[in-house]
Sequence to fold (376 residues):
Amino acid sequence: MIKQIRHFWQYFKMDTPLFLLIISLSAFGLIVLHSASAGSMQMIYKQMIHFAIAISAMLVIAQIPPYQFKRYSPYLMLFGIFLLLLVILFGSKSGGAQRWLDLGFVRFQPSELMKVIVPIAIASILSEKTLPPKALSVLLSLVAIVVIVLLIAKQPDLGTSLLIGASGFYVLFFSGVRIQIMRNNWLNFALISSFIVGSAYIAWNYLLIAYQKKRIMTLIDPSSDPLGSGYHILQSKIAIGSGGLFGKGLEQGSQSQLNFLPEHATDFIFSVIAEELGLLGVVFLLIIYGLIIYRGFVISFQSEDNFSKLLGASLTMVFFTYVFVNIGMVSGLLPVVGVPLPLISYGGSSLITLMSSFGIIMSIRKHKIPRYLSKL
Fold:
């Protein structure tokens, strides 16, 4: 019986340590979500359905060899850009943003797909036999990243566009690309610094819209508008600070249970963890996150080809970025950009995208590159 179960498990090509960590964190997330939703079983049932769909997607994607992702990466990128153009032309609006495609039977955000497609496409472009890649490959990658970022920022969705842009730059970083404009390092530093300052000036005066500027100003001084734009951050800080070492206990948090804390089941659920489970709950969460990130890097760096190394490492860094941005956002260290806490926050589309990324990492772990491809 045990041999049959082991054979069945190996057949589905799941990495056991990574899978157990994901399931453990997901179970922890359901417990926290039950508390954050004041015992709403309807929300828990919906989230369990989301998990079932997401794990199924992870299981299916884990069966696809990595070289197949590389082979079809140009088509995936073109398909993604096509969907983003459809959003701009025919997308449905909600809350002042045009980010969704409504097909009648389903409504989804194409930008969620780009969180996976962009790392695949950029890793495919840069995964030459020897690294660092050639200048032409780097230039093509930069053009692709900029086009995607601009299309998503147009919706407008600046937070998602910057995070997807970061996913592409992670691939560039792991490929060993060096920014060498001038031979002198100090001149390089001066040029790059000038470019960053100039870009920030242009973005602030010509690209950012009013509510985006307000979020940045709120980050600097949330008390300037305590009942308006600074309300979320101030209530989140109160919740985090009041938890202490052991927390107030599940369903005992005043900020979340009395609805002082907005979006406490989605973007600000980390504040619920800090208030109700205290520092120990936060440390437990960070340890599980750290183990998942560590396992992702181990799988990536042990892979046999450059494409798998670049793709796996970049997807792992994307997961880290979402954790870092969400915790920084609710702690008042970063602007509020609407990024969910991975595997904890309520929601379906981001969870499916995340599990798909883990499916790719498991595929990298379990599939060996064919010999005829390794010689190319």
